[in-house]
Amino acid sequence: MRLSRAFLPTLKEVPAEAQIASHRLMLRAGLIRQTSAGIYAWLPAGLRVLRNIERIVREEQNAVGAQEVLMPTIQSAEPWRQSGRYDAYGPEMLRLRDRQDRELLYGPTNEEVITDIFGQSAKSYRELPQMLYQVQWKFRDELRPRFGVMRGREFLMKDAYSFDATYEAAVASYRRMMLAYLRTFQRLGVRAVPMVADTGPIGGNLSHEFLILAPTGESGVFYDAALEEQDWLAQDVDIEDDRSLETFFNQVTQSYAATDEMHDAQAWEKVPEAQRREGRGIEVGHIFYFGTKYTESMGVSVTGADGAPFHPQMGSYGIGVSRLVGAIIEASHDDAGVIWPDSVAPFRAAILNLKPGDADTDAICEQLHAADPEAFLYDDRSERAGVKFNDADLMGHPWQLIVGPRAAKEGKVEVKRRATNERFELSVAEALAKVQ
Ligand code: ATP
Ligand code: MG
Ligand code: MG
Ligand code: MG
């Protein structure tokens, strides 16, 4: 992609409405534009990041046996009346009426729709377990939309739903999802700590939120410092083996970690004082077991091995895909701009032509660009070098391939790693190998 032709509208001014770094940087780097309060358009570079996150989320959902579906954004009020949530959900739900005066809503979540779909087809315990997921837009009329895409009103969520025959099987599904989440966040280049979350009237301990530690997070968090070092994915896990899943789960949840809502002063006392950490975190995922709450209220049952009908056990599992774009930046930036983890970066490298029109620099830049025109953003503009350096740092490409006339004469490229500021003088072939 040539920058001179790309729609990458960077801003020099710091937008007044943006209170935190990630929101400012997303506007300045030309990733998003707000169209209404809490509603955003994704511009080319922002959409690339969003798609990269989605891809990793999908791969890890598929890896634990979840199957992708796509449900509509507009839902009927009917199943919500059955579950009892239509009135209970309150003003966060955007309610609509069509021309026949039927009650509709823009889905804030999908337990009712998926339970309805599953219930219409499932007849027997033999059809269990099932794990279905989608990546779809949600709408919640948040009281205070803020921090850009971190608390939007319209936002992209991965939501998965599990259906199991027994409590034990539901627990195994829950643990598989825990594994999928930890793998997902690791691949996204962020550390998201699983923390005990509220289970409400369901009870038990099968609800965890995943929080990226950051001072601008909206949740207060209490955790054991051991978690800062813990490698949750150190052991191999056999997802078909309940014992292996249990060992994994116990290991992941052994250290104290809770959000302020669930903080337990007694358990906290048991954490050695020097190990106690208090801070703030951004909720980027949430997994929840809720048993037969929806299958029971919505009258969904299947026939068991003994011929008697029973209500399948369910869980639901969300990841804030669009929130993650902001959260990753919150966790990975400096004064100059974004520092994208390699896996989600919109472009792997920027090629900075410091002297367009110079035969040597032009030739080397063209050669680099031709190697991967999709992944490399070629800054071919007739701008000053300083402007190019600033824009590349702002946009946060993991690598910069800097081509100036003197080095170009010798066929050399300066390669800069954005995260560490390391620099290497390399030949074109070596430079291309370096940024692979
Ligand atoms: P929060 O506590 O931040 O309001 P939540 O607990 O209401 O989030 P869930 O119902 O658990 O959200 O939804 C699953 C995930 O969707 C959350 O973990 C979060 O990452 C994301 N999410 C929720 N609300 C928003 C929002 N308004 N904007 C962007 N992402 C959101
Ligand atoms: Mg909420
Ligand atoms: Mg929450
Ligand atoms: Mg939540």
TrEMBL record:
Q: What class of enzyme is it?
A: ligase
Q: Output the InterPro entries linked to this UniProt entry.
A: aa-tRNA-synt_IIb (IPR002314), aa-tRNA-synth_II (IPR006195), aa-tRNA-synth_II/BPL/LPL (IPR045864), Anticodon-bd (IPR004154), Anticodon-bd_dom_sf (IPR036621), Pro-tRNA-ligase_IIa (IPR002316), Pro-tRNA-synth_IIa_bac-type (IPR004500), Pro-tRNA_synthetase (IPR050062)
Q: Provide this UniProt record's keywords sorted from A to Z.
A: Aminoacyl-tRNA synthetase, ATP-binding, Cytoplasm, Ligase, Nucleotide-binding, Protein biosynthesis
Check the record and name the Gene3D superfamilies matching this protein.
Anticodon-binding domain (3.40.50.800), Bira Bifunctional Protein, Domain 2 (3.30.930.10)
Entry annotated with the keyword Ligase = yes
One Pfam family assigned to this protein is tRNA-synt_2b
Q: Please list the GO terms describing molecular function.
A: ATP binding; proline-tRNA ligase activity
Subcellular location(s): the record lists: Cytoplasm
Function, as annotated: Catalyzes the attachment of proline to tRNA(Pro) in a two-step reaction: proline is first activated by ATP to form Pro-AMP and then transferred to the acceptor end of tRNA(Pro).
Task: Spell out the family assignment given in the record's similarity comment.
Answer: Belongs to the class-II aminoacyl-tRNA synthetase family. ProS type 2 subfamily.
- HAMAP family per record: Pro_tRNA_synth_type2
Q: What is the name attached to this protein's record? A: Proline--tRNA ligase
Q: Which organism is it from?
A: Neoasaia chiangmaiensis
